[in-house]
Fold:
Amino acid sequence: MLRRLALLAAAPTALLAVGTPAQARVPAPPLPANAPAAALTPAQLMSEVVTKTNQERRANGCGKLDVDLELTIASIRQSLYMARTGQFTHVWKDGTTFVARSHAAGYAQPSGENIAWGYRTSEEVLDAWMASPDHRENILNCSARSIGTGVAYGNNGLPYYTQVFGYE
Structure:
């Protein structure tokens, strides 16, 4: 059985509404229906995603991102929302955006959000994000200083990933 997967990237060019969020869709490679579920916990995947994100940044001349608790809270909430509802979206049904989620968690200056679902390893999700211009732009925004990552498993057994980047 083949499955399709989309990725979206949203990045405000500034909190002052200088631009609109960038979005992209990237298909994932097909997996067999009997592919085993990831054996890693959400916390393990979150840690690996941060490590691999910082490796990509270092390889491209950007500084290391520090893990921020507030951005992590916002990211986990987003991943839980997607896993619970099965909706793969940056904007919740009530209109809540990653900027609003970040502010609600106590973070003032978010810079962008990457989401993905279905990738079974951190390598797969980072490879997909780096192959997508909008996701890559969020990861390689050298002005970003912080990151929060969330992972939650859906009822389908697949992980839902979120990265939120920030300027603080």
Q: What stands out?
A: The chain has one domain: 8-27+39-166.
